[in-house]
Records
---
Amino acid sequence: MTIDLRTYQHSAINQVRAAYQARRRAVLLVAPTGSGKTVMFSYIASSAVDRGGRVLILAHRQELIRQTSRTLAAFDVAHGLILPGHPATEDAVQVASVQTVVRRLERLDWQPTLIVVDEAHHATRTTGHGRVLAHFDTARVLGVTATPQRLDGQGLGTVAGGFFESLVSGPTVQELVTAGYLSRPVVYAPPGAPDLSGVRRIGGDFAAGELAAVVDRPTITGNAVTHYARYCPGQPAIVFCASVAHAEHVAAAFSLAGYQAASIDGTMDDTTRAGRIADLGTGALQVLTSCEIISEGTDIPVVGAAVLLRPTQSLGLYLQQVGRALRPFPGKTHATILDHVGNCHRHGLPDDDRVWTLEGRKRRKADPAPDLAVKQCPACYTVHRPRPACPSCGFVYPASVRVVREVDGELAEIQRSAARDAAKREQKDAKTLEDLRRIGAARGYHPGWAERVHAARQGRQPMSRASQ
Ligand SMILES: [Zn+2]
């Protein structure tokens, strides 16, 4: 089978080639989840082999290795696997677990001409990737990732102590949505997000144990069930949790509310785990909860909702979680994202255009912080790009309302301020004393209010309160 490429895949691959022709050794291809990164690098690997090259594809998770192997097989690209328990083969393409290659480095009498690094944001000099790339220091390198930065925000370029010399930007999420390759994300952030000020940061993200203690609460869980029932009842949904126990509690709450729900975790045997994932695909389960990323190898396009109950400082993790719901599926009009933990305010909307560099994600001066680049509807909690009205429910923002955060009290404040502004407008539009009296009566104002306003407009001294 020949590899049928989409237009943007062609263009990305041509840019990668141009970078190598410009004598860059290590190129980083950035493209969102769902853009077909595996297809693109399989194509590049296959072309390299056609020209007599040898390709080593590195991945750090079993699911990704299996997924890559399946894609290569679909394209009739012969390949071997460098994995425990797999005998070595002579194939020109080898798909490898990083850890296994590291263990066999000294014994391998095989020199790749191209090394593909999947999920390249894990590739740093101190990880196994670093040892493999240093060992084969004449091979070209192609890194692929959706988020080209480490957890601490550092870039992956040589300028930031990483490997890559050139960055190629693939399509944006918005472009993929427009072209129909991804579903449009609609984000709701109902009030009640937990206060994380007391949670420590470890290794760039919230400390897992402390996080679970803050988010594993009946109020937050109840809120998630309520809003699932309101916005996407019965839709196949994945709920991202902060611990195994948290995932179990949340599944129990959804079950109690009458939904078919279950949790999965790493302690389960493969059959149970795979069975529950399959059940979500067939509709036997409506809600699947987990504290781990449900990996790319287990994509279930029918999933139309992602419920975020695990706050994260990692933009990559956030985008991966949301990405689980973005696969297109017949009849799916959009993907519902229920963010109960403030991730969209921390990182912006899933389909924001992001500017990536090899230095890391520096916010340009002109770019607002993520929570200022979004507006939140006080009526339905949709989080969206600033515009005069809510795209979900049509709520019209009074001109002076400031940008909203998700905190309950502030939402109430926004509603008050919206009401105040509406009241002022109504009053300004009231032309006659009669109109003003009607408004005053409707609002329960003092009987003299209309006369006072009217008199002030005529430039007369209003009567004193005492005389009214
Ligand atoms: Zn709305």
Note: Residues 377, 379-380, 382, 390, 392-393, 395 surround zinc ion (CB under 6 Å).
---
Amino acid sequence: MQGTMRVIEISRPGGPEVLTPADRPVPSPGHGEVLIKVAYAGVNRPDALQRAGAYDPPPGASDLPGLECAGEIAAIGEGVTEWSVGDQVCALLPGGGYAEYALTPAVHCLPVPDGMDLKAAACLPETYFTVLTNVFLRGGLEGGERFLVHGGSSGIGTTAIQLASHFGARVFATAGSDAKCAACLGLGAERAINYRSEDFVEAMRAEGGADLILDMVGGDYIPRNIKALADDGRLVQIAFLQGPKVELNFAEVMVRRLTITGSTLRPQSVKSKARIATGLRTEVWPLLSAGRIAPVMDEEFPLEEAAAAHARMESSQHIGKIVLKVA
Ligand SMILES: NC(=O)c1ccc[n+]([C@@H]2O[C@H](COP(=O)([O-])OP(=O)(O)OC[C@H]3O[C@@H](n4cnc5c(N)ncnc54)[C@H](OP(=O)(O)O)[C@@H]3O)[C@@H](O)[C@H]2O)c1
């Protein structure tokens, strides 16, 4: 495919205003890759980190922001057998979603769930890949366990609440307003803790402690998470909105047999992300197709207004996913 496409570039590290519309050549798929004509692109907090200069794309990835999209396959590279031109997909991207066309490994595409529109489908990959990996594969959440997710109203949080409650966990969430707490309860949390007026450590201790905590906040939440865990509990760290460095007394980790782990999705190998895609297709996509879970949609912005989308995300007023309409 030839020609140019509209994209959003990061003109320099900075605030939302550095997101600049531009034209670029349409890329060609290499071996094992597909080219997607993007209909919608999901907006994620890591896009804002990349824009600010704090999260560089991995080697070989597009320098354009955008980690997920939904649309139609426009071209396939050599060796691709699982998809054909014209198929509608949603896809995890190594970058480059804020554009009319995006490349990704064919094995990182998933079908659009039955009955779901492309706008909602564009908001699935980044959070579902992240939650399956960190809550279930790494965190080992099991039915009946007490699960605490911080940032319960975020894209990640709204996904984690729904999946964990669907698989039978007792879900607790923190959020920064009563409206966000109400949203968490509506998604299946049995208790939502407004962290501005209530201490989540006391709330979890009153329940016997959390068996698993998914944390994106870090900073002083790290020692507080340790206190909020039940004996043998696990803490999975996926981001550090309040910073990664803290002083910690590890005696409690040892004596109460706690596990501290974490991961980031983007730098993982193509093969590793393909395995996650397979797990999602088998375990989670049937739930989406049956309408038993669904992404929580916040606001839609045109591609050209990506800066406004980032400003909304960084205002933290949103609940669920912000999306860019591309075509
Ligand atoms: N490790 C991975 O593989 C991976 C993958 C994707 C995303 N992530 C991370 O997961 C987090 C959530 O991503 P997302 O796209 O779902 O983001 P998001 O929708 O923007 O949500 C972030 C939420 O965190 C809450 N929050 C708590 N403390 C905060 C603080 N100090 N500063 C800013 N926000 C704070 C905010 O809600 P309140 O009003 O409740 O404070 C906000 O809504 C991000 O940190 C992202 O980098 C990690």
Note: The radius of gyration is 20 Å.
---
Amino acid sequence: MKNKSVSNPFIVSGFVSKKYFCDRETELDHLLDNVSNGRNVVLYSWRRMGKTSLIRCFFSQLERTNKAETLYIDLMPSRNMEEAIQAIARAIHNKYKRTTRGLSENLVRMLAQLGFSISFDPMSGYPKVEVGLNQLAPPEHSLQALGQFLAKRKKQVVIAIDEFQQITHYPDVSAEAVFRGWMQSFPQLRLIFSGSHRKMMQSMFSEQNRPFYKSTQLLDLKPIRSENYGRFIQKHFLANGMVIEKHHTKDIYLWSRGQTYTIQLVCNKLFGMRRDVTDTSLKQVYDEIIEQEKHVFFHYSKLLTNTQWAVLKAVAQSEPLTQPQSQEFISRYRLGAASTVATALKMLTDKELVVQEDDHYFVHDVLLARWLQKTG
Ligand SMILES: Nc1ncnc2c1ncn2[C@@H]1O[C@H](COP(=O)(O)OP(=O)(O)OP(=O)(O)O)[C@@H](O)[C@H]1O
Ligand SMILES: [Mg+2]
């Protein structure tokens, strides 16, 4: 990955290298401080703020400086404990399958004992880890064996479990307790739990009656500071012989509500025009982005009732909204009975379509908000 050159410095998917990664110095220090001092971390934020990329960046630093071995696990596709364990086993296998003598025998034996089958994909030639014909060992047992394997490594192992809120949807009632037990059994492993459902992550780790209560350090990933982002944007335009004025970078930041993904997307498109940025080109990019997402927005509208959709639209058009229960808000947008509005709003906030911060309500998806604002 080192010194990999790209045709557009504004990356819109994943982490490429530090060169194209804006800021996050404090957060990287913070993660290193926690990991070096035996503390586990929970990383959460609003959507698309950069959690996964921060983990990737942090892990690439740890690996490069030989400080630790890292393991990244994404639980997004998992629907139950068995699939979660499979994801962990697969990540371990991918990481450690190659030793100087080829496949690691101990690892293969251990996975087979747990009920996994290792086969070779005839297309790619790479080994595949699947649940075999035999039933998987009970979750606690499997996790214990996988944990022991990792704990025996000479180097410190740091494991990131992304989209961790997924476990709250598992039908296995004790998923939280099982993971908490796992964490406690292996104090030598460092864990970073990350999740894109902010509220769920917060409550899992800060409610008194939950297994993970006060067991980890919470890191709420905030937007990158506007000035830092502005400098990063200007630097990359300038390095390629193009000019973008400070007031334009500020405008992008505000329009994107500081959300990393949206800023990257706007800048990627502007950069793609290969000319100095003007008011007109900026507006053109905003319009183009919203236009491209239109189908996704229509899809949202089908999933919601008329009242929910009307409330969502009203929230977007009143951004930043402080009093969604007020008569003034309800009658301005003709939303009907206050109780119906309250029910709709509750559904929208539970699903994090609408979110609340510092007494302000807003439509979580920035682009959807911008589109709803435009639709009059
Ligand atoms: N510090 C950064 N500098 C530049 N680009 C970044 C940075 N952080 C994230 N990005 C870009 O922003 C986008 C969103 O980042 P990422 O997927 O890491 O966010 P996330 O918080 O994990 O999102 P989700 O809530 O969907 O899981 C990606 O396209 C990534 O390339
Ligand atoms: Mg992510």
Note: Residues 304-376 form a domain with the Arc Repressor Mutant, subunit A fold (CATH 1.10.10.10).
---
Amino acid sequence: MIKDPFDFDQPISRENTNSAKWNYLLESVGVEDVLPMWVADMDFETVPEVKKALMERVQHGIYGYTARSQGYYEAIIDWNQKRNGWRVEKKWITHSTGVVNALYTTIRALTKPGDGVLVQPPVYHPFYRAISKNDCQAVLNPLKVVNNRYVPDLDDFEAKLKGGNVRLFILCNPHNPVGRVFTREELTAMGELCLQHDVIIVSDEIHSDLVYKPYRHIPFTTLSKELAQKTIVCTAPSKTFNLAGLSTSNIIIPNDDLRGQYDMACEQVAMKGLNIFGAVACEAAYRHGEVWLDQLMDYLDVNREYAVNFIQTKLPRLKVYNPEGTYFLWLDCSSLGLNNGQLEKFMLHKAKLWFNQGHIFGVEGNGFVRINIGCQRSTVEEALNRLEQAVRTIT
Ligand SMILES: Cc1ncc(COP(=O)(O)O)c(C=O)c1O
């Protein structure tokens, strides 16, 4: 049965919803009349079946401690099989309230103070905090730009692993903020080096459902049996279906020992509860969300195409990296000649736009911004018009 298209164009007010993205502008950035296109949540209603399942659960009126049902596990297993051809076993699935939380837990479980954790800047900024707060050292393997595309620097990757103290590699795939969906060859090359140097891979695949055609997400554990035994995969329905407020993610660890160590680290801080609504929403989303997601990706793809064309034709001073996945645009504004502080002021006060500042992702992001296009097309249009007018004032 072909369903009517979902109406992603319909604006939905987020007033008075305690939205971190929309409702605390003055407190957060000191101005009120900016268009918020920063943190990774979308301005779309989730899958109708998710809303319905949540309403039914709310209606029951008793919200006691919640266990993971067989249906919950099956929904995750079926989704990964269907979308990515990844055969996940039930016992591999463990839990976290969020992927960032899982990163902290993994580092705590598998490192000792002073160990190195390799990351690929410019990269999702909480990675750095997860490393430093657990007394480890970030070992930087910056992505390099080849033919207008960010790629792993494999020579440097190998040199950093040879350095000796790297215990973990936190991979971000699809990569936030640069939007790359790494190829099998790239992943295999990094994986082989990790095997050679006995490095565990923590593969943050939270954006793995948000991939544009013709790109394909390759779950890291599907590369080889050896790599599956060395990898912790962080997944969640939160980015895909706009459920971040429900604090539910699924951490998939095929290796019994690694999973045991991860679970022990959770136990040490009594972290084992499952949010009752997160459980309901996760199951319903993976069971019923496919048609919605495919239409969402078509919509985001048009947003992406529109924005990239707009920037290339009307804002040629800026350089945009066309994402292969995620709903972010990574925009190089360095030709405007502003330092990071000035760029932030320019965007907030002149353009009236709240984007993430690129420098938070590492020094490689100096002079960049990250734009969230997971919103109505009218918002993208308004933002780019504001940006164009503001850039015109800089001679
Ligand atoms: C790469 C990446 N990992 C993790 C997260 C956050 O995950 P959670 O809200 O489950 O902690 C985000 C959110 O933007 C992200 O981009």
Note: The pocket of pyridoxal-5'-phosphate is lined by residues 40, 98-101, 124, 172, 176, 204, 206, 236, 238, 244, 249 (CB under 6 Å).
